[in-house]
């Protein structure tokens, strides 16, 4: 006779476990081609193992997006997959009668959200939440979405609307190197880790053409300026200044060539994010002229940590 304790039946628990194990073996060893499961709700039974095995099989087959009901799971390919983000593909998802029937993609989410705005008589704001651990690809995904809207949220018939969208696109894209220079740093997990949160608002007019954008930032990890974990670095901007300032600028900003700063560890790491020129260029495009930039970069002001953290304890001016 089966014993029942506090309404709990250990015998049925054991049976359930056994049947789950059988289901699991049947699923993983069976006919199902795991990489073809494009929605994790089709995984049966749903366990950590089956879900991970399915994602792993898709990753091995170079398939980086998988639906999980109405959520999209994006895997970081850690390599360029150019055809996955081409303007042609953006247009294909935009023109599809039912984009959700195409392969799972971040463009499906972008298009679905765009249609939600369009289909409502009284437009309601739509939000896309991009979340994941450090290095998962959130910044990359947000950039993809911005590029997608810059392509689709314009009227192909109107040259003027196209020009406006192009200008906004350029400004949005130019805001990235600036924000990344001042707010990103090299960490153990990600060479270009955002050390702040972002709310990016894309503004559409009544005919759903993009007419503006705003970016709000949150919770910048300010402590990084004076304290960096082992093998990590300070914000990119300080290395950019040290590596990229001209001779004149060094004089102006009291920044001797080759000076070492205790608050700028691991300067020998050479990253593509260390390019001062890119930041300056992007700032110019955003309307921050050279004199204003110089004021920002003056060592005594924005780059004060360089003064305080000099290795030999020498004051710089
Ligand atoms: N879809 C993708 N295709 C190619 N490379 C990618 C993709 N997604 C991410 N990566 C690569 O992974 C790196 C880390 O991605 P990203 O900076 O977007 O992560 P994150 O989630 O924003 O990290 P953090 O929270 O640390 O800022 C990128 O620099 C890029 O090289």
From TrEMBL:
InterPro entries: Kinesin_motor_dom_sf, Myosin_head_motor_dom-like, P-loop_NTPase. The keyword ATP-binding applies. It holds the Pfam family Myosin_head. Keywords: Actin-binding, ATP-binding, Motor protein, Myosin, Nucleotide-binding. One of its GO terms (molecular function) is ATP binding. ATP binds at residues 132-139. One of its GO terms (cellular component) is cytoplasm. One of its GO terms (biological process) is actin filament organization. Residues 35-317 form the Myosin motor domain. Belongs to the TRAFAC class myosin-kinesin ATPase superfamily. Myosin family. PANTHER family: MYOSIN, UNCONVENTIONAL MYOSIN-XIX. This is Myosin XIX. It comes from Cebus imitator. The gene is MYO19.
């Amino acid at each position: 006779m089966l014993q029942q304790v506090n309404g709990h039946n250990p015998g049925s628990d054991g049976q359930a476990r056994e049947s789950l194990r059988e289901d699991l073996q049947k699923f993983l060893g069976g006919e199902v081609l795991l990489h073809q499961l494009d929605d994790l709700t089709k995984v049966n039974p749903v366990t950590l193992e089956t879900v991970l095995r399915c994602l792993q099989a898709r990753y091995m087959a170079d398939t980086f997006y998988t639906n999980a009901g109405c959520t999209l799971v994006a895997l970081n390919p850690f390599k360029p997959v150019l055809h996955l983000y081409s303007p042609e593909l953006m247009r294909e998802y935009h023109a599809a009668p039912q984009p959700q029937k195409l392969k799972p993609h971040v463009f499906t989410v972008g298009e679905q959200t765009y249609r939600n705005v369009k289909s409502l008589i009284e437009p309601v704001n739509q939000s896309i939440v991009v979340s994941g651990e450090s290095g998962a690809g959130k910044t990359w995904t947000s950039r993809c979405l911005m590029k997608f809207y810059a392509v689709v949220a314009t009227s192909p018939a109107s040259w003027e609307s196209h020009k406006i969208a192009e200008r906004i696109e350029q400004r949005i894209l130019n805001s990235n190197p600036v924000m990344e220079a001042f707010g990103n740093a090299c960490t153990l997990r990600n060479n270009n880790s955002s050390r702040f949160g972002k709310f990016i608002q894309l503004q559409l007019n009544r005919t759903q053409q993009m007419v503006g954008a705003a970016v709000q930032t949150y919770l910048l990890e300010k402590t990084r300026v004076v304290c960096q974990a082992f093998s990590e670095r300070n914000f990119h901007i300080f290395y950019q200044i040290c590596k990229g300032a001209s001779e004149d600028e060094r004089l102006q900003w009291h920044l001797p060539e080759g000076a070492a700063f205790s608050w700028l560890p691991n300067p020998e790491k050479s990253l593509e994010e260390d390019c001062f020129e890119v930041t300056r260029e992007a700032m110019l495009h955003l309307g921050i002229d050279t004199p204003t930039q110089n004021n920002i970069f003056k060592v005594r002001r924005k780059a004060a940590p360089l003064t305080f953290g000099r290795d030999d304890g020498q004051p710089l001016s």
